[in-house]
Design goal:
Radius of gyration: 21 Å
Structural class: alpha/beta
Number of helices: 13
Number of domains: 2
CATH superfamily of the largest domain: Type I PLP-dependent aspartate aminotransferase-like (Major domain)
Bound molecules: pyridoxal-5'-phosphate
Number of strands: 17
Shape: globular
CATH architecture of the largest domain: 3-Layer(aba) Sandwich
Largest sheet: 7 strands, mixed
Distance between the termini: 34 Å
Length: about 400
């Protein structure tokens, strides 16, 4: 079914996200990686990229650049900074100065460099768990101490345990890694929660590194707030990591915008990038970002509608065919965090059902660290036919089938 969008000028635009494009043979980490290790009869609902092509304006721009044929060194010029500033303003009503924006290929690289340059070996870095592990691993890989503050599941919704967080901050945390919105639990932090986090970081003198990579997927009734917007005092100790990677499906073009209002912090980060030998962006990344941030608003609105319908479809399907599973209501992201503990809390049982019998690849809860036992994460940013087939397979092998 086509998603129809009325533009500001009153024109109707249609986008078809139902079309299935095979990703086998494209070196896809999600599909080819799965085929290599588990077989090509599997269906992938795992890695957090989308099974829909990037917006037509981006694809056209990349093709145009590809045809140029000379793939020499690239730099970000004023049009890049303007595109980022425009997006921050339009999407999050955050006015960003040009100087605050620092290009870095990947968010995980930026987090790692920030840990290296803004903390010392042995310092504590706090994160709310269960959580997307590459961000947490950046802490331990750099010989810092990972301090997990477990979230609490209250009436089906994850909440930060502020008493626990404060206790840990009191013990001497130097940096808080905030995942905003949160992967995998799908929370969109409220202004009040962000203010409390900001206050704690001021009181205990910790830096805030906010990973906002999922911020363009916010569901009805919720609003993304960039933590640095809350006050100048908070902005001065914040680094906001943004990227078009998830939003426009550009992950492997490698472009992230790290926004740092504080000059000293920014210079330290830039120095860290130089030390790591990270400088020019790839040839395709800047034009792709510019096209995405300046001419794909309608496409994104249509995609957000499609994802919302995928969530509704998945909820209905699970309620009908696997009613013991509990979907944590997602406030943001295109990922569903599903409590399968009615089937088993043991990952091996879930693997036996979903991977071995149903032949579906999902992300298992334990891969998100402590608190993930008995859960799976399902990526629903795909044509509905793929979701439908994956769920049907899971339902047909469902261990609680009567
Ligand atoms: C919260 C979060 N941060 C960062 C990343 C990866 O970002 P990058 O590819 O820019 O390193 C992901 C990808 O799944 C993510 O979910």
């Amino acid at each position: 079914m086509n998603e129809r969008i009325t533009t500001k000028e009153g024109d109707i635009m249609t986008f078809n996200f139902d079309h299935i494009v095979s990703r086998f043979g494209t070196n896809s980490a999600k599909w080819d990686g799965m085929a290599q290790s588990l077989g090509s009869d599997m269906i992938a609902l795992s890695v957090a990229d989308m099974d829909v092509p990037a917006p037509p304006a981006v694809v056209d721009k990349v093709c145009e650049m590809a045809r140029h044929g000379i793939y020499g060194y690239t730099d970000p010029f004023p049009t890049y900074y303007e595109a980022v500033r425009q997006w921050m303003d339009q999407a999050y009503q955050w006015k960003v100065e040009r100087d605050w924006i620092v290009y870095c290929p990947r968010i995980i690289q930026a987090v790692s460099v920030l840990i290296q340059k803004c903390t010392e070996a042995g310092d504590r870095v706090l994160i709310h768990s269960p959580v997307y592990q590459p961000v947490a691993k950046a802490v331990t890989l750099n010989d810092r101490v990972l301090t997990e503050s477990p979230m609490q599941l209250v009436n089906g919704r994850y909440e930060i345990d502020f008493a626990d967080m404060e206790q840990r901050m009191r013990e001497g945390v130097k940096m808080v890694l905030l995942i905003s919105p949160h992967n995998p639990v799908g929370r969109v932090w409220t202004r009040e929660e962000l203010e409390r986090i900001g206050r704690l970081c001021i009181e205990y003198d910790a830096l805030i590194v906010s990973d906002d990579i999922h911020a363009d997927f916010i569901h009805q009734g919720h609003e993304h707030t960039v933590i640095a917007k809350l006050s100048e005092e908070i902005a001065e100790r914040s680094v906001i990591c943004t990227s078009p990677g998830k939003t426009f499906n550009l992950a492997s073009l490698e472009i992230a915008n790290i926004i740092i209002p504080n000059r000293d912090l920014r210079e330290r980060f830039k120095q860290g990038l130089l030390q790591a030998g990270i400088h020019n962006p790839t040839f395709f990344s800047v034009p792709a970002l510019e096209a995405a941030y300046t001419s794909c608003e309608e496409w994104l609105t249509a995609l957000q509608g499609y994802i919302k319908d995928n969530i509704t479809f998945t909820k209905q399907y699970i309620a009908e065919h696997m009613p013991e599973l509990k979907i944590i209501e997602p406030e943001g992201t295109y990922l569903l965090w599903i409590d399968c503990s009615a089937v088993s809390r043991r990952e091996s049982d879930l693997v036996d059902w979903i991977q071995e019998k149903a032949r579906v690849s999902v992300s298992y809860g334990t891969s998100f660290g402590s608190g993930g036992e008995g859960f799976i994460r399902v990526n629903i940013a795909a044509p509905r036919g793929i979701i439908q087939e994956g769920l049907a397979r899971m339902a047909s092998a469902y261990p609680l089938n009567r």
